[in-house]
Amino acid sequence: MTATSAAAEGLRGMIARGELAPGSQLPAEPELCARLGVSRGSLREAVRSLAALGMLESRHGAGTFVSTLRPGQMLAGFAATVDVLPLDGLLELFDVRRPLEAQAAALAAARADEQVVARLHDLQKRLAESDAEDERHALDREFHATLCAAGGNEALAALIDILRSRGSHYSIYGAPEADTIRLASDLGHEALINAVAAHDPAAAAAAASAHLSQTEVWLRRYGPTPSGEPQSSMPVRSTPATM
């Protein structure tokens, strides 16, 4: 194990044991170096690596602190990995996304109030009326983020958002079935809204799974590339798919 790895492991251990609580400032460098048995250079490299993972954060003029350790921060490293996946890797993630999104929808159906349902209705209404694909993508992401947030599980919502993010790079709106794709997406949202409004977790889970499965079918059929250029000769506009 390198000195930098030893320093990083030591800091992670201090955080895991509660010696360094969320939001607390790290001790002075000389104290940490003595405690961990490493040089200042190794300690600083370790701090940078843990900051990249969302565990630590540097504040200008104040020092280095343990982050709040919220799920979104802790998944930062995973997000960077997901964001470069090729299409075949993205399609493998659908097997992971399907149960997660079904569970998120079920939780939303069990816990959402009338304000959430009204918000979902408003977002879907704007989606149905919009002809601007960039706007539709933004509204679609907000729709699903609202649905996940309603479930009350921050870790689940953060993970789903990361898994969904890569899908926005692959466009399917230039396909011959573009109108069908758009209609089916809108109907999928309506099914989710109806299940949440009825407080029916089973129906919500089924609607989420069906909605995601249909997107997977289209991606497999048309095989778009991240740049928006299709692998076949089919013309595809460089606009994001709602997923």
**Secondary structure tally: strands:** 2
Structural class designation: mainly alpha
Oligomer: single chain
Query: Are there runs of 5+ residues with pLDDT below 50, and where?
Result: 228-242
Counted up, domains total 2
State the share of residues found in helices, binned by percent.
55-70%
Fold and architecture overview:
- By secondary structure, this protein is mainly alpha-helical.
- The chain folds into 2 domains: 3-69, Arc Repressor Mutant, subunit A (Orthogonal Bundle); 76-222, GntR ligand-binding domain-like (Four Helix Bundle (Hemerythrin (Met), subunit A), Up-down Bundle), CATH 1.20.120.
- It is 65% helix and 3% strand.
- The protein has 11 helices and 2 strands.
- It has helices at residues 3-16, 29-36, 40-52, 71-74, 76-82, 87-111, 114-129, 133-150, 154-165, 178-197, 201-222; strands spanning 56-59, 63-66.
- A two-stranded antiparallel sheet has the order 1-2.
- α7 (114-129) runs antiparallel to α8 (133-150) and α10 runs antiparallel to α11 (201-222).
- The longest helix is centred in the middle third of the chain and has 25 residues, at 87-111.
- The radius of gyration is 22 Å and the shape is elongated.
- It starts with a helix and ends in a 21-residue tail after the last helix.
- Residues 228-242 have low confidence and may be disordered.
